[in-house]
Amino acid sequence: MSRAALVADLGGTKIAAARIDHAGRMTDRRVIPTPPQGGHAVVDALADLLSQLPAEDVCALGVDVPGLSRADGTVWAPNIPGWERMPLGAILTRRFRLSVLVESDRNAFVTGESWLGAAGNCRDVVFVAIGTGIGAGIISGGRLIRGSGELAGCLGWMATRERYRPEYKAVGCLESHTAGPGIARAAERLFSRPIDAREIVALARGGDSKAAAVIRAAGRDLGLALANVVDVLNPEMIVIGGGVAAAGNLLLDPARDAVKQWAQPLAARQVKIRRSRLGSRAGLLGIAKLCFDRFEPRKGRSR
Q1: 3-class DSSP state for residue 251?
Q2: Which residues, 6+ apart, have CB-to-CB distance to 202 below 8 Å?
Q3: Is the domain of 169 the same as that of 79?
Q4: Contact 9, 15 (CB under 8 A)
Q5: Are 13 and 277 in contact (CB under 8 A)?
Q6: Which domain holds residue 265?
Q7: Is residue 288 part of a domain?
Q8: What digits encode the pLDDT tens for the residues 255-300?
Q9: Quick one: DSSP state of residue 87?
Q10: Contact 271, 255 (CB under 8 A)
Q11: Is the torsion defined by CA of 265, 136, 255, 270 positive or negative?
Q12: CATH number, domain at 236?
């Protein structure tokens, strides 16, 4: 029987958990809402969910989080109240008495896609998650790029506009225009009513010209940011995931056009820009692979 990891993908609105083996087979997947009050209520809900998974022949436990996982095991997650320095790793280690890995979600996403997803076996790949916010996981030369403060991949702060706006200080320029809330704000000005990014994507896919124009503008901003990523990192592939990726080529075609126009020509011709193949499974598979590589490296090696 192949040894497995118990893993969870923690988000601001939901928590998914599953048991995954070395071949990437996922079983016992279950999802619950993230407690809105935050704090230790989220830790308890996460631990209770993981405790429901079959624990036989498990080598480790892994959780990816929507924020920063520090070297001391504490977590900063801006979308979860009370998670400025949550000691998640220590709490889970005491409760489960297993090897525990806590990792940022963007690193889990790019690992999952390069293991079993759209970027299978790529050694130079960037995963860009576009939802409520924007973040990127980076693998260069087969290794995760973390940065000196574990902050590499904060793509939402990329400058794609010349004139600075005060709101960029909180979430960054690209995120202000291309993440879900920014797309919604742009659409509200056209539709003169409250509307969210999911509805805009649905309208655009259904042929609404105003909604399609909003998505194209977001794709153009995304492409300017990706052109800079291509220039700096020369990746084989850029994978786009998150809820806004549901727009598909309505978003990606203008992004590809901007990369062709603005990026270094040889690098622009080399890179492929694709939508995530794993979708909501990317984080779970990625954190499982990182657990295997950390705690059972000979069995976990796949690249």
Answers
A1: helix
A2: none
A3: no
A4: yes
A5: no
A6: 122-277
A7: yes
A8: 999 999 999 999 999 999 999 999 999 999 999 999 999 998 765 4
A9: -
A10: no
A11: positive
A12: 3.30.420.40
